[in-house]
Amino acid sequence: MNSFGELQTVTLADGVENRLLEYMRNASLNPGDSLPKEEDLASHLNVSRHIVREGVSRLKALGLVESRKKRGMVMKRPSAFTGLRKLAEANLFNLREREEFMELRVALELGMCDFIFARKTPEKLANLRKVAGLPNSSVQKFTTEIDFHTYLMEIGGNQIASQFREILANVFKPVYEGKGHINRTLRTPTHHEICDILEHGTFEEFHALMRKHFEPYLVNAESGKTSAGKPSE
Question: What are the backbone dihedrals phi and psi of residue 102, each rounded to the nearest 5 degrees, phi first?
Fold first, then answer.
């Protein structure tokens, strides 16, 4: 507790939040480790318990702290996308912003191709086929699209990337359903064709097929236009 110093009289809740973050870092806390009691924090920082609660509530909103029975406040494993997840669930983004999230999703999955190809196993590919949907259709239900690409990212083995893609999925549903600037006339590879190339093809063939799969969403990049038909800035 000696690492806590008395706060100034301005931005007290901000000060509590910042001092707690410093304490968690300097004390090398791990998820599940206990934090100082509320009354001890108030005493060492020379603020009211109300101010301490406000500062702690901000860390709870970030997913860094939780309260447990008989233990008080403990550190949680941080999630990189807590704030973005809440914004996505609130459904506040406009169509152009959703298109940009879709572009980010495409870039993320194409960038993960190396890891997906390197970390695939026969068991993982068998599970991927189970969620691939209709064998001869390049257009699937939204839930099937989400299930297939979510598991594809899981094969890549990067949990941060998988979490980020899961959040993006909540945002780009209207774009997938055709409300954005998407060329639906293109014939794209099916999920089952992606499975085939993962099982029998080379990395170069897999990457090229994935890019072809996302081609309807690449028209913005190729034309330089947004959903409104205007050049992107």
Answer: -65, -40
What's the whole-model pTM score? 0.67
| DSSP run (H or E) holding 74 | strand 72-75
CATH of domain 82-223: 1.20.120
For the chain, what are the domain ranges? 12-75, 82-223
What is the torsion angle, in degrees rounded to the nearest 10, for the CA atoms of residue 147, residue 153, residue 154 and residue 158? -150
Cβ-proximal residues to 28 (8 Å cutoff; 6+ apart), any chain: none
pLDDT digits (tens, 9 = 90+) for 100-126: 888 888 899 999 999 999 999 999 999
Q: Does domain 12-75 have CATH number 1.10.760.10?
A: no
Tokens 């406040």 belong to residue: 73
CA distances from 144 to 83, 190, 219, 225 (A): 26, 12, 23, 29
